Amino acid sequence: MKKMGNKIAIICCLACFSLVGRSTVLADQGWQTNQQSFSQNLRPESPQTCTLQPPLTREERVTTDLRQEDFSPDRFRRGLGNNLGNNLGNFGDNNFGQDTPAPVESIAVASPTNYGDRFFGDIYGQPAYHAPIVVLHETVATLRQTLNFFQSPQRDEANQASYHTLISLDGEIIYIVPPDKRAFGAGNSLFVSQGVRQIINQETGEVANQLDDQLDDQFVEESVKTNLDYPPSVNNFAYHVSLETPRDGLNNAQTHSGYTNAQYRSLAWLVAKTGVPEDRITTHQGVDRSGERIYPRSFDRAYFLAWYQVFPKTQEIFIGCLDPQTPSP
Question: Which of 8, 27, 121, 159 could connect to 15 by a Cys-Cys bridge, CB 3.0–4.6 Å?
Fold first, then answer.
C-alpha cells in the first residue's frame, strides 16, 4: 500500500465507516408492492426532508449526490442564526454552574456527495422508524484535513464520509451536515437497545420506539439497510458528533492524551440540545460490527456525563424529518 502519512486517518477512519450510508439500485418488483402499502401509512403532510425510499437507479443517486442545498443556520440548531460566530466567553475550568457560557459555533457544510437524505423505509420497503441515537467519534486527523475531506466531492461510494458536527480542541462547534440529513458516519453498524418496542399510531400510521417495562430483560438490535452492496447501519437514525483528536493521537495507537475540558463541555452542551437520552448516547466503537473501530480513544464518559447533567435538555437540534421551510420544533 502506498504510504500516506496522516492521510491514513482520512482514508481509513473517515471513509471506511461511511460505506452503508449510500443508496443503491433495486430492481426487485416486490419493492413496488411494499412501497405502495408503506406510502399509504404516511400522512399527506409528512415533512419533506426525508425520502420515502433509496433511489432506484445509479442516475438518480448521482443526481442526488450533486444537488447542493443552501441551509439556513436554524437547520443545524434552532436559534443558531442569532449566535453564529459569536464568542460568548470561556467555560472556566471548575465551573459546573448553569451560567456556563455557550461555545463558539460555526458552519462548514460538507459536499453533497458526503451526506444524503434520511429514509422513511429501508431498501426492502419496510418502515425504518427508530428513536434517534448520538454516536461519538474522533477525527484521527487534524481539523483542517477532516473538513477538507468532507468538503471535497467523493465520487467513490467507498470513500464518502461525514459527521453532523465536529468539536475542535478549543471547544468550537462546527456544524457540517444538518440533523435532518443522513451523515455517513458509521458503516456496518448496529445499536443494541434494551426494553424498546415499536408503537404504531393506527390513525396516522406514525411509528415510534417507546420503552416497555415488560421488555426490560430483552435487547433490540437496531439498524437500517439502505444499500444492497453493504451491511445495515445506524446512519438513518444517528446524529454523528466527532471530537478533534489531539496531536499525539494522529496515529494508530490504542490511546492518547485525551480531549480538552473545552471539548467535553461543548460536547455535553451540544448533546443536551438533541433531546437524546443518556442510554442512547454511544460511540463508534459501541455500534461498530467490524471489530476495527476503537473510537473515540481515551474518552472519559463519566466526565462527559457530569457535564451532560448540567445543561437543560431541549430539542433545538431535531434529529429527524423537517419541513425545510420552517425551523426545528
Answer: 159
- Helical segments of the chain, H only: 7-8, 29-39, 58-65, 73-76, 80-83, 143-151, 261-272, 284-287, 301-308
Q: What is the DSSP string of 288-299?
A: BSSS---PSTT-
Mind listing the pLDDT tens digit for each residue in 27-55?
233 333 334 443 444 443 444 577 875 66
d(C-alpha 175, C-alpha 77), whole Å:
9
SS3 for 306? helix
* Secondary structure class of 157 (helix, strand, coil): helix
Determine if the pTM surpasses 0.90.
no
SS3 148: helix
- Distance, in Å, from the CA atom of 172 to the CA atom of 87, rounded to the nearest integer, reads 9
- Which residue shows C-alpha cell 470561556? 90
Separation of first and last alpha carbons in the chain: 48
Distance CA 228, CA 161 (A): 18
Question: Tens digit of pLDDT for each residue in 59-108?
Answer: 555 555 555 678 899 999 999 987 776 654 444 433 444 566 789 999 99
